[in-house]
Structure formats: C-alpha cells, structure tokens
Amino acid sequence: MTELILCGCGGKMGAAVRNFAEGRQDCKIVAGVDIAGGDQAGFPVYSSLDQVKERGSVIIDFSHPSCLASILDYCRSHPGVAAVLCTTGYSQEQTEAIKEAAKELPLFYSRNMSLGVNLLIELAKKAESVLGEDFDVEIVEAHHNQKIDAPSGTALMIADAINQVRQEKMRYTYDRHSQRKKREKDEIGLHSVRGGTIVGEHQVIFAGQHEVITLSHSAQSKELFAAGAVNAARFMDGKGPGLYDMSHLI
Fold first, then answer.
1. Is the entire prediction scored with pTM above 0.90?
2. Nearest Cα to 233, choosing from 11, 85, 63?
3. Could you tell me whether strands 43-46 and 38-40 are parallel, antiparallel, or unpaired per DSSP bridges?
4. Residue 181 annotated as catalytic
5. Each residue of 27-86: pLDDT tens digit?
6. Contact, 183 vs 136, CB < 8 A?
7. Which of 34, 54, 139, 237 is paired with 194 by a 20 to 30 Å CA distance?
8. Cβ contacts of residue 137 below 8 Å, gap of 6+?
9. Is 147 a catalytic residue?
C-alpha cells in the first residue's frame, strides 16, 4: 500500500487525484496540504507541509511553483519519501534545483502526466529528425481560462524535445506582434490560447514547401493526469535517489 501526501488537494487537480485514488486498492491518501486547510474526503488537511503528522511514502504535488522548496526540504528531512512533481510554471532556476536535488532524493518530474502527450513528444522528435531544417516548427496550445502560466509546461516539453534533435540550436519565439520581420529558420514558435473549460490541447505543426504535417493531442478530462500522477507515485514507492520521468514509467 502506497501512502500518499497530496499537495494542492483543494484545487481541481487535487480533487481529480482524490477521486481517482479512492477507486484504487494499492494506494491511500493519508494527508493533504492546501493553503486553506480543513478536512476533505476523510483525511486531515494542513496549511503547510511541515505541519503534516502522518507518515507518507510519496508526495504528489499539484500546487504552486512557490511550494517546491518546502517539498524538497521535507523529502530531505524524511529519508525515503519520494515526490511526484506535477506542478507547471517552474522557473529555470527551480528546474535546476530539481535536477540538483535528485542527486540525493527520489524525484519524479514531468510537466505533463499523460501517456498520450508523452507519445506525442516522441512522435514530434521522430518527425523533426526526418523533416529537418526544411520544415518550420510551430506549437499551439489551448487551455481553460483559469490557467496562469503560458505557454504551457507541455508546450515547452515539446519544444525542448525538438530542440534536442536540433542540437540545442533553436530559439523560442513567443510574441511576433512586437517585431516586424520574416520568420527565421532557427525559430520554434509557441502560441497560447486561453478560454472556457478547455482541459488541454496541443498541436505541433511542421510546415514545409507545399505541405504541412500536424501532430495533435486533446485531453478530454483531468482524470488522465490524475491517473498518471497516481501511477507515478506507485512507481516511485521505494525508489532510490534520481530524477525519473514518464519514460521510466512507460
């Protein structure tokens, strides 16, 4: 039985994880953390992680980037506790902090917990390796009107994967409105749409001479991200130090 501490339990993704975990026999949420505190779904909820009295084996985090330091500190002070980091919007410095902390802590980090999205990323890498510099790359993502960060973490994951194929020679362009010039070959364009209750949609466009290839993924429910997070937590239970991601889970 994997005992979970759920950070961000009061949010929409927290609710999705709670609902998904309730139907599992191999894991249990023993405590939650939310800035509002209170009791939810039969487990105690604390306003900060350092107040948690229950012993969990894995933290699932769907909270806010500002909580990262407290999660890493908690794992350091509770040897053997792993963390599944699902929050998006980390800064470059925070991403580097995760990589450094993984030298001593078991950390699972993915900006998207969907199996389908991670397959899309692999397909995008393959397409880039085949199509090469003759095709321009544009990424369009759409999310609900409550999402704060833009572009999405998933869009950046896709861009980073394509850029790796190009030996890190590409640069990201977010706003063409502020410049008046032709598109350059070393650009990856990233574009964000926010509206309604869109769960998450991503398109990767490879535009060449007289042909366009589009790869796309559409999330229909937050449950798929909850399932990925819980499965990742089960995978991380008992793991040693290191930085894990969806490729290890798959």
1. no
2. 85
3. antiparallel
4. no
5. 999 999 998 766 656 789 998 999 999 999 999 999 999 999 999 999 999 999 999 999
6. yes
7. 34
8. 128, 162, 170, 187, 188, 189, 204, 205, 206, 207
9. yes
